[in-house]
């Protein structure tokens, strides 16, 4: 199973990285990390990545080693503590996300398309939605995998369905949510998120078919491709040596750079909000009203936290604020309006239009479902 661009056969390299014509026309080529040249990387250092990495690392180490140098009530102590809590909660999901990015980078696009089904079909959208629900990763790990799926040739609708239905629907978080709010509300949240994912995927594919949005330039035809036969042959040919694993992991890290830089910026912003805007003051205004739902949408948009962090806050909205719809909206709106998702879509697809259509299509659906939940379950 050769790597993305290290295969000795020219046909395999061309299949992953495309021809020269594709490279010229595909704006995501350099961003994907698939075939970046060292010269290009050296001439253009990623200032945002290195700046956020230094700030987050410094804050984490300061809280870990030097908190006795400042007052426990100081802004610096609170800020660095928030950074540490955020990184502690998301590092496993982020690490798994980079691992799966590396694995997917070794998988030819024909396998990805075969697993997700045909593009622009209901079955393809359903497969992508189920894949997102059953993949046990946090929102940031899911984002890494979703962007890699786009680069491997999944349709825009499939990528959106996968991304929208998955971030908090992992097995571990589902169990936690059941313990916090009960299985009835949890199953309802999962069902509604899947409906929104499927509907949004179909809408995106229809917009692409109608020429309103650009299609995925990485899409390839898989007619006549026999995945099980090919998988067996490639498995037999692969030698899982230490070098193979090291190379695969390093490729996953490199290909995750564009997501990590926005994620680290989100950690800094979320830490600042936690430091200077107490969460208790938010919850005071989060009742089962139109105003409360509006406040939820605003805060969910501003507050960049991993799914592990959003789950207990959403549970508080259900139990303490008696606003189940607000809890659902908090979980879903963080995905639909999160700047990390929007900027990642922009850089991966090369289209601001696609990125901005994510909240435009999903937020109205979230509001409708949340409003109905508040009417039937809130008080």
Write a compact overview of the structure shown.
With 379 residues, this protein is mainly alpha-helical. It has helices at residues 10-17, 20-25, 29-32, 38-43, 47-65, 75-105, 109-116, 122-134, 139-151, 156-165, 171-181, 183-209, 227-237, 242-255, 257-276, 279-283, 290-302, 307-319, 324-336, 339-349, 352-377.
Task: Kindly list the characteristics that best describe this protein.
mainly alpha, 0% strand, 379 residues, disordered N terminus, globular
Question: How would you characterize the overall build of this protein?
Answer:
There is one protein chain. The chain has 379 residues and is mainly alpha-helical. The protein has one domain (44-377). Helices cover 74% and strands 0% of the residues. It contains 21 helices and no strands.
